[in-house]
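Entry 14: structure prediction run for Golgin subfamily A member 7/ERF4 domain-containing protein. Input pasted below.
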Amino acid sequence: MADFDTIYELEDEEDERVASEEPLPRHCPEPVVMRGAGHITVFGLSNRFDTEFPSVLTGKVAPEEFKTSISRVNACLKKNLPVNVKWLLCGCLCCCCTVGCSLWPVICLNKRTRRSIQKLLEWENNRLYHKLGLHWKLSKRKCESSNMMEYVILIEFLPKYPIFRPD
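Run finished. Output tokens:
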């Protein structure tokens, strides 16, 4: 009766069971890269993205939802980038007199534009795309044709976790 309340450790069995459980490999396709399709680029950020539906996303998201999301990003760019271009031209004209300080406003405005696009994409992710197993983000990539950097929209596929596997 004295052994009734004692607790024994089962270290050997637990260690074998934990060692035999390996995480399952999760296969995710390559992310879809949406490059800028506009004719004006300010500090790597193009003035618009193409609304053409990529064939890789067929069956994942409706073409209408995709076009709506890209149109929202394009509307944000259309609102902010003309101001950035005007400040860039003004900054370039006054650059010699101000020792480069006249370019600070356009750098700050470009950063604000990027942040607003990132917030918009996070809102879209929380609203729709995380439920569909996708994640949209603004990412900096090297241009294919030159050594310059550009901002692209990356559409990543989230890994599917096996929910029917016991703990």
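Notes: The longest helix spans residues 63-93. Will compare against the previous run tomorrow.
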